[in-house]
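Dear colleague,

Thank you for sharing your sequence with our group. We've completed the structure prediction you requested, and as agreed, I am returning the results in plain text so they can be pasted directly into your records. Please verify that the sequence below matches your submission; if there's any discrepancy, let me know and we will rerun it promptly.
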Amino acid sequence: MKNFSVVILFYLGCIYSCAPLSPFSPRNAPGFILRDQVLNRPNEPGKCYAKCKENYSPNSIVVELPEYLGSEDLSMDHFRDTSFVVAAKGTEWIKKKVDGCRGNSDDCYVWCLHETKEEVVQVKYLSKTANLNAEDWQMSEFIIEGAPKEGNFTWKEVVCQNKINAQLENKVAERLQLEFGEEIPKEISLKREYIKSNLLKYQEEYGLAIGGFTIETLQHLGLK
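Please find the predicted structure tokens below.
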């Protein structure tokens, strides 16, 4: 199945280099506890958390279109532009922060009914097949995707910084190699860049929160 995407990447959040919080909370330091409460931050002994971006899949539809399989280049008059509606006009509930409210507790947010616009995606497809050999084209299913949706930030449990070691990095890199088939670089800095970029790609493809070594992602990779 092929994938047409509008290439608009909204990449915010903590990717690999985000500093997870210390697993040790000084219970005798009121200022620290107050800060956790204001930020609505989870505070469990022995665990680390980072604020990461939720990942929402874009609107999409599946359509059947002719696909060219031949080896020779075709002139542009064989192709035509057409439009597909991937999301109809409607309404949805949006969580918004109250103006002037400090912190991130639930008391600072309200749900508002928001009107959504019709989302249309334009694609180019093979339209002239009469003069082509039968083996040079076929009907195929294509995924037509709209723009990625912007997500909210949320606290996610992550691997504590002092537990991110070469053994964990190697296991993650090996699982990502099985997923995407790209060779793992031997040089350490290149390997870490490989993990960073492919982990982001993995989280985006599977709708996971974007934030480096999250426990959620490691579980999805089968490492927890």
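Summary note from our side: The chain is about 20% helix and 30% strand.

Kind regards,
the structure core
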